[in-house]
Amino acid sequence: MKSLTQKITTALHKHWLHHSRTLKATTCTLATLTALGSFATVPAHAQTPSAAQMAQFKAMPPAQQKALAKSMGIDIADLTGGTQAPADEPNLSEKPTDDTNEDNELLDVDTDIEMDEDELKEEEEKLPVFGLSLFKEGADLFRPPANIPVPANYVLGPEDTIVIQLYGKENATHPLTVNREGQIQLPNIGPITVAGMTFAKMQELINVTVAERMVGVKASTTIGSLRTIRVFVLGEVEHPGSFSVGSLSTMTNAIFASGGITEVGSLRNIQLKRAGQLLGTMDLYDLLLAGDTSGDQRLLPGDVIFIPPAHNTVEISGGVNRPARYELKNNKTLAALIKMAGGLSNTSHAAKVMITRVNKTGERSLVNTDYTQAAGKSFKLHDGDQVIIGDALEHIDNKIMIHGSAKRPGQYSWRPGIRFTDIIANPYQVIPGTDIDIALLQSMSPETGRIETRVFSPSAAWVKPYTDLDPVLNGYDEIYLFDLTSDRPAMLEKTIELLQQQARFKEREQLVYITGSVKFPGTYPLTTNMSTQELIELAGGLTESAYGSNGEITRYEISDELQRIVMHVNVNLQDEPRQLAPGDTLNIKQVPLWKKRETITVDGEVMFPGVYTILPGETLMDVLTRAGGLTPYAYPVGAVFSREELRNLEQQRLDELRSKLEADIAIGNTDVGVGKKDLENDEAEKLLEKIEDTRPLGRMVIDLPIILDDPASNDFPLEDGDELIIPRYKPSVTVIGEVQYPTSHFYNKKLNAGEYIKRSGGTKKHADTDRIYIVKANGRVIEPSRSKWFKVKTEGIEPGDTIVIPLDTDRVDGLEIWSKTTQILYQAALGAAAVGSL
Questions:
Q1: The pTM is what?
Q2: Which of 278, 300, 475, 605 has its CA 20 to 30 A from that of 391?
Q3: DSSP string, 414-480
Q4: Domains in the chain, start-ordered, CATH in brackets?
């Protein structure tokens, strides 16, 4: 919740923005100057302003306080008790004087804030006022240059400096300042009155005087530094008041000094008053639109520039070059407004002009006119009108789109009678590999605006151009050319979506479906009078697995009782093609027992290793026989057999474990819930790295010697992707897991598992010595503690076996992830070791 001070500060800041606009919209500034004049022209210590005057002064925005005090020569601190609020913040020095309840104050403040925010939002949405950007740079950049030649009609006054150079019999230079009496004191001559004279008259007077009073001497007279003059800029300007400007300043210089004109001020009726008389007006539009400065008159001391509120303002937006708010003067026609707005843009649609205006009942009404007609150009505008010039539509109404396998796809211009061969004249204009026997033409019905489709043969159109085989195209037509590899239903997805959207209760979706032995099965548009043969061609044609010419159409209809009736119709594709109906599904039957090519890899110690193609039901012994059998160096006990399905499952488990471990590390549980003795963070990171580097083997345990001895009882059928590796005999035993030095040892039939572990440095601190197990060379797992192998030294361990010392998961508080991860890593390491023995 905001504090009371914060809410009041926000409310006063919004109120200041609103009050500054309201104050500028009136002519109370001059009255304020008059009311404050009693103390503004007197030092602060000589007279104390009244309470009413101070209240009126403090009600003004800080920026106006500062500008007014500066123009009157008053220190702002004297009026605010030594403190001055920043110019962009409200003055909070005054406390509320009423006795209202604090809660009610908060309620009122919140309401005011909401209203002011709405007003600010409306202001932000308004178009900029034309011409106000001229005042953005500030007054410093628009000061009149001091080194320009003084015009002959320049009127001299006190504080002007005149430089008189004498030459001839006497040479001297005298810079002389015009005093308050309007005179200069020329040495050897005396006072000469020059105030009120023009520069040309003064030069003539000096020349004559010097010639008469000083024999043999001539004079050359120039203007040195110029005096400053004080003028008033009042009305709708940012900082109204009195300003000191150069004596060569014009009306625009004074307006710049005041901060520029406000949004409600007039740029076309800037008044110059002198001694209470109106000398003339300036129209800034002459400067902004035509570069005409003839109305920018030079100022004299005491001049008043008054900016009245603007009248007859009109907004224009849309298809014009300079959308903004403009002030109309005598010519209030639409043509005059568009001319001021820089003319129509090159994307405008002048036939559609919308004018919004406030009618007599206080409601907004819409008026349409056509600017291309004389009545539209002479249309009379009212004060407050909002004009919107229509823009050209984004879409192009005379285009033809070519999609897909053309060398130059994209948009083409349409003209009456244009045909397909006018755009793509021959096969050399399509990409090699294009299906030139079938293409799809999507059109829009000129009567209904609905999408319609048809198929045609580009090759036939090229052979017989300008015939019925070469389709005539209309505007908005789209042609789809297909290659021999891309997914055609995906390419036609937009067309299919449009056909689905225009379906109705009594008009079904104009779509058909094709499944089975075609190159690109899926959903296709139902083209005009589409046949089964056209649908097959559109789907890329039959595949090698197609069962001759046998197919089936599944069709459903809605009976008069609004019930669905399903029919299955067998069709012979070699007969006359059948016409399809909306929603039909054409199934192209497949050769019985057809399967894709399946292979198995046989590697290692076989006579002819390699990749073998297998048929359904073919067994391991069949492939080994085709591979020439085992070599004399083969070690069938250690055969490694892997299957694609198992590899995928292992990869899935690895991915799940990696995600779980990454999540645990990310939340800071790098010890992953370790209980009695924490595992270090780097151990978890190392485990994660091992998971990343592990590739699943998908090993399935087989006993190859038994299969070789009795294939009739133990042989099994193969699957696609199977892999058989026959290692070479390798007399070694491997020790992995939680030991000091995981390594392999030469096989010694006298050693048991425990002694091999001792030769690897013994177990680690987190080893689970009660669950040590042995993985046999063929992948079978045995637990030696249960079979008492530690007690019988000569039994159990064989060449190619692996002793695994797992992690003690009982010392990990229920964290199953460590056990699962290490098991998979061990299995992958065992498979890699077996493969590495080749």
A1: 0.53
A2: 475
A3: --TT-BHHHHS-SGGGB-TTEEEEEEEEEEE-TTT--EEEEEE-HHHHHHSTTSTTS-B--TT-EEE
A4: 4-125 (no CATH), 132-142+228-307 (3.10.560.10), 161-223 (3.30.1950.10), 313-391 (3.10.560.10), 399-590 (3.10.560.10), 644-836 (3.10.560.10)
